[in-house]
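re: the backbone from monday

yeah here it is again, tokenized this time
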């Protein structure tokens, strides 16, 4: 079969399984199997597909029909123009999180802390974009940190990025200070879990998705500890769910942070809350 025939059959199968954007996912998987850039796949479609590669492709399509995320099947996810290793032990980097990256890069920083770093995509992207900056990424999951280590080393950021296994601020020394603290914490309320897509609900780590309660526990914990480690005049940037802006802003205000503002994503939904520590 030609690439076009294999692709058409896969698209029909994914569509029948209810997979959103079935044609896009079929192309991404075929490009992965053929080891060609996705943007150049069309050039290879008229050619016959090796039967062994076709078998591999069919297995991937079958697993995608079971709603396994594409990133888990190919082991990579693009974030802010860079490929990151992704496994079921970390949250899949999402385009909306790039809103936090843009907000962080809007002002200079020299020392950044990423709470709940997961794959490391936020910390490592910020360090790659801000020459000379250094940072720390912490996560309570040793499995997630293994992925962050791999991404850090692949990006050759070992000298500038330290990774620690710890819950929130627990892995820091009392004297550690940062002029930028960022986090994409678990913010989905337990009651919202049944409404998530199968890709998220069944295949992403529960610890990175929800606190098992109202979705605000992480923000309360961060607010309690941030004053000891955010330098005077430093910024705190937190990703939020689209209905949480008022609640998170109130938590940060009660913790004494100022200049609190909400930043929308490209779809116009509330996505990031930014706050500043007084002084400096």
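seq for it, each position gets an aa:
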């Amino acid at each position: 079969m030609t690439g076009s025939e294999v692709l058409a059959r896969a698209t029909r199968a994914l569509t029948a399984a209810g997979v959103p954007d079935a044609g896009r996912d079929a192309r991404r998987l075929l490009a992965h199997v053929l080891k060609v850039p996705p943007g150049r796949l069309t050039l290879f479609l008229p050619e016959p597909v090796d039967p062994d590669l076709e078998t591999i492709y069919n297995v991937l399509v079958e697993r995608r029909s079971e709603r396994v995320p594409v990133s888990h099947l190919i082991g990579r996810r693009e974030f802010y123009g860079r490929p990151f290793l992704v496994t079921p032990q970390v949250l899949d980097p999402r385009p909306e999180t790039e809103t936090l990256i843009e907000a962080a890069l809007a002002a200079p920083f020299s020392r950044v802390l990423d709470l709940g770093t997961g794959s490391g995509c936020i910390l490592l992207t910020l360090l790659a974009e801000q020459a000379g900056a250094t940072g720390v990424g912490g996560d309570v999951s040793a499995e997630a940190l293994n992925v962050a280590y791999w991404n850090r080393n692949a990006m050759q950021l070992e000298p500038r990025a330290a990774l620690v296994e710890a819950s929130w601020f627990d892995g820091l020394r009392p004297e550690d200070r940062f002029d930028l603290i960022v986090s994409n914490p678990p913010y989905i309320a337990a009651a919202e879990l049944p409404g998530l897509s199968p890709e998220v609900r069944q295949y992403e780590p529960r610890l990175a998705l929800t606190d098992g309660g109202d979705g605000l526990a992480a923000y309360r914990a961060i607010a309690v500890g941030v004053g000891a480690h955010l330098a005077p005049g430093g910024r705190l940037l937190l990703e939020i769910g689209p209905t949480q802006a008022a609640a998170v802003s109130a938590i940060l205000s009660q913790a004494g942070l100022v200049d609190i503002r909400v930043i929308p994503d490209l779809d116009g939904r509330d996505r990031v809350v930014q706050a500043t520590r007084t002084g400096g």
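The chain is about 40% helix and 20% strand. The longest strand covers residues 230-239.
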